[in-house]
Amino acid sequence: MDYEIMMNNNLKIGMEAPDFEGISTTGEISLSSYKGKWIVFFSHPGDFTPVCTTEIIALAKADTYFKKINTELIGISVDSINSHLAWLYDIYIKTGIIVNFPIIADLNGVIARKYGMITNDISSTETVRNVFIIDNKGIIRAIFVYPMNVGRYIPEILRTVTALQYADKNSAMTPANWVPGNPMLIPPPKTFKELCERNNNIAKNRNGMSWYLSFKNVDDKPKLDKGD
Predict the structure, then answer these.
(1) Which of 17, 94, 148, 196 has its CA 20 to 30 A from that of 1?
(2) Model-level pTM greater than 0.70?
(3) Where in the sequence is the domain holding 75, given as residue range(s)?
(4) Contact 169, 79 (CB under 8 A)
């Protein structure tokens, strides 16, 4: 990973996710220790804040669903470990919800700056609402950035991870508003011969609009074993 790229906040889809080590609410962790798992790595601006609290609660409720698709949640902010622990304990006391995924205490912002989670135009001390979806090979597959005053829609993050896994497994793409069980898009042909064959297939099976837009039904769910 190029140091200049990281420090200029230019991480992009398709790049290797920078490794890190940190102290979290579940103990010391590193990104490399999650090898074989998909990761949703997200930042929040601050503990004991209204939007962040609703997001942590929503993520804790969805944690089981992420685990079902071989995906782990990792949170981070520049708050201290004591602040994180007190915040999670307050959530537990008030709601009964236990947050089982780690939240990293990145006091000096080293990890956050590697990932461009601190945007100086907004704040030089707080992380904005970033989400990095990292696949089981350590590659960044999707990036979301939300403003300070808008909470994340957790079902869309879960859907995106699922869509990426289905697309990988079936060598296909997902159309707008796709959810598991819906048809997937067939990649467009690369030669004129394939184009003609695709149009003939569409005429016969009525499974598309034209050679560049056709569908297929998918029954093959992604495997959840490490390395798949």
Answers:
(1) 148
(2) yes
(3) 3-152
(4) no
CATH of the domain at 105: 3.40.30.10
When divided into structural domains, the chain yields a total of 2
Is residue 227 included in any domain, yes or no?
no
Is 196 a known active-site residue? no
Residue 174, amino acid = T
| CA–CA dist 107, 98 (Å, integer) | 23
The pLDDT value given to residue 3: 42
Catalytic residue among 31, 40, 51, 52: 52
Maximum Cα interatomic distance, the chain, rounded to a whole number of Å? 65
Q: Do 133 and 182 fall into the same domain?
A: no
Token pair recorded at residue 205: 């099976």
- State pLDDT tens for residues 11-39: 999 999 999 999 999 999 999 999 999 99
Does 162 have pLDDT greater than 60?
Answer: yes
Same domain? For 107 and 191 the reply is no
Residue 2 has pLDDT above 60, yes or no: no
Assess contact for 161 and 215: CB atoms under 8 A.
Answer: no
